[in-house]
Amino acid sequence: MDVTLLSAAATGLAASPWVALAYLASGVLFILALRGLSSPATSRAGNRYGMIGMLIAVVTTLVTHDIASLPEILAALALGGAIGWIIARRIAMTDMPQLVAAFHSLVGLAAVLVGWAAYLNPEAFGIAGPDGAINAVSRLEMGLGIAIGAITFSGSVIAFLKLAGKMSGAPILLPARHVINLGTLIAIIGLTGYFMTDQSLWVIATITALAFIIGFLLIIPIGGADMPVVVSMLNSYSGWAAAAMGFTLSNTAMIITGALVGSSGAILSYIMCKAMNRGFLSVIAGGFGADASAGGGEAREQRPWKRGSAEDAAYMLGEAEKVIIIPGYGMAVSQAQHALREMGDLLKAKGVEVKYAIHPVAGRMPGHMNVLLAEANVPYDEVFELEDINSEFATADVAFIIGANDVVNPAAKTDKSSPIYGMPVFDVDKAKQVFFIKRSMGGVGYAGVDNDVFYMDQTLMLLADAKKMVEDINKGLAH
Amino acid sequence: MIVVGALIASAAAGSATSKWLGLLAVVLASVNIFGGFAVTARMLAMYKKKEK
């Protein structure tokens, strides 16, 4: 990695070693930032490294380029900075997934604009020959950067609308969508190739338009629960768009950090796909859940299940020695995290050991559950990942499932015909007692599969809004 | 990081259209940067509270 970075830095701006050094420093700071952010203990330092790295990159850029319009640029920075700052201050923690998607869309659009600016004014960037024609390689980089940027933009807009609930989270399936998508993709690649021989306006305009369209088409068929993968994938795209633009503008800082963001996002997407035991392509191809009814639909015969009350739950939780709480998207929807933390406090006051178990794909963005629990002041040393806690269910007295469903479904381990077969799940069936908070018996999770946990002997279903139920349990515990 | 590209684009002389495209890109990118860092700092501040 270091060698790649060094050579990238060396080739880009050989003429000015100080600039290369400054950009390299900011690249190193970004690596430190990403590394720092990977653990709660070092994450604040990581965020600070990122800020310093960004500051160095911006100042270096401003100092080393002939600035034709400094006041306007500073005004633009101030305006954007103020807007970003205010949004970040005001946004509710539960709106975080859509905010992240919205921010990605801005990066994508910015990449498109930069690409167009370079296209319209190639001489200023030193990418045009003496006859005014843009270098063929620069055209390729420009075309790719604009296309990836446009896909990032429109894809993120759809992801934002779905996450914000302004558009149905259900997969929307067009007939022949695979053919349409593939055709559009091939057209974009073909046109980008053609752009190298013909730099007419219509070529780059068509590439831009088609890329916007495919961004919409790609994300529309992807369902709500696959959004964590989509968000991190779009994050990755925004990185690659910046990297492609970095090549066009011969800017090493953009190449380095763009590639960093691009590859870390890609790795995260891959990890999450693995956590769901789904191929990356099958997530991207979309439509999951919509055709799953074939698997679990007909098997939904009436089976006996037991309904519990808040009093039952309060009593048994209070008597337990060890309780493992499994939060899911339902907790986010009903904003139950504060009540849940209170429940944890009440239980700990009674000497109960409380742990939280978080599935890699719980919620709607990577780390969604962690952020909500942190907002409610749940100590992070009580929060565990799937592989770290799964063996503990055998020693747990109570598994308390709040707003999760598919991630505890044993069908993933046993039923080969299940659409979630192979996904690692929590072994809640090993716990002595299971409480399952659910709004009603009607819904069957995102994957549309029935869940054997509902019908186990040791399961009591708590049918209510998650927040209301936990508050009632807290009343019982407080007695 | 696209902000660097946006800065370069808006800084270049010669084409008014390019300059405005670049400036708009600077605005968009800086919303992302400032917003991103601020929101991260806010999330991390929640962890900090509990360390005490």
Keywords summarizing the entry:
heterodimer; A: 479 residues; alpha/beta; six-stranded parallel β-sheet; B: 2 helices
Task: Please tell me about this protein's structure.
The complex is a heterodimer of chains A (479) and B (52). Chain A is an alpha/beta fold. Helices cover 58% and strands 6% of the residues of chain A. Chain A has 19 helices and six strands. In chain A, strand 2 (353-358), helix 16 (368-375) and strand 3 (383-385) form a beta-alpha-beta unit. The radius of gyration of chain A is 25 Å and the shape is elongated. Chain B is mainly alpha-helical. Chain B is 88% helix and 0% strand. Chain B has helices spanning 2-11, 16-51. The radius of gyration of chain B is 16 Å and the shape is rod-shaped. The chains are: A alpha/beta (479), B mainly alpha (52). The interface between A and B is large, with 71 and 47 residues.
